[in-house]
Amino acid sequence: MRLSIYQGLFLICKFLPTSAEQCTSETFRINPDKRDVKLQGFTYRTFEKISPRACFQKCIRRKRCHSYNYNRASLRCELNLNSICVSDGNFHNDIGYIYVEMDHYRGDPLFDPCVGNQCAEGEVCESLQNRKVVCLKDDCKIPKEELKNVAPGKTSGQSSVYGNAIAAMALDGLLSTHQHTNEEKFPYWWVDLGNMHNIMRIEIINALKPGYGNRLHNLDISVGPCLDDLSLFAHFKGPGISEQHLVFERRQYTDGRYVKLTIKGHTALHVSMVHVFAYPIC
User: Fold this and answer.
1) 76 forms bridges with which residues in the sheet?
2) Which of residues 80, 111, 137 is at a domain's end?
3) Peptide bond into 17 cis (omega under 30)
4) Which of 78, 111, 132, 235 could pair with 105 as two cysteines, CB 3.0-4.6 Å apart?
5) How far apart are CA 275 and CA 210, in angstroms?
6) Please, which pLDDT band fits residue 84 given cuts at 50, 70 and 90?
7) 99-115 confidence digits (pLDDT tens)
8) CB-based contacts of 118, cutoff 8 Å, min separation 6
9) Same domain, yes or no, for 118 and 86?
């Protein structure tokens, strides 16, 4: 029996899903927004050895997925957050990648299986046999390897500098050094981890100089994809004491690229060391 054009295209998409960056059937067609380019710094989930169509489905089923990078050679799928701080500078040339945004397809019943049942930020919509969809918790398996401190050597900054106690001194691994801001309202310190990480634990070693540890109080520790898009990871009421080793940990990871410490009051922010323990993106 002779196959129709649509049936033939469907079979091509089904049995040769990795043959091209664009695949067409009766109801599926994507056109990359950028070719040989990827968005860096905002990937929060990765999937290996999957087809272009499967990568599209992984993204559109997740409300928090704004776009994805897909590599045709390695079959690697990278889901990106919808961050307010994405700019042209975050796109980098990388041969073999395509970049696709979901805004063109979300809400269109030809492409979006979750129309009429949009899931929450931390959920993924899964299709049932009766074509209905349910919202399930979108979680990835915690890696078996040990947590790593991903902060050393990364770019950092602070609201002001007292003397020569710059922000990087909280990441140099030396207890004999420290970062130090001026006395001011809402002093802060931050570190850019360079890419999204699954952050599990943040440790702070307070200033070692006797009599200054109580400056650390009413401290907000925030995590997020950029400095303008942070959420509270932990709060330390304090006051702290000199040389105090503070540990803030969650059972469930929080994905983020930036970690920021802010004292809500008028004082100086003065800590000896900051560790950010995290897993690679999953």
Assistant:
1) 71
2) 137
3) no
4) 111
5) 22
6) confident
7) 999 999 999 988 999 98
8) 63, 125
9) yes
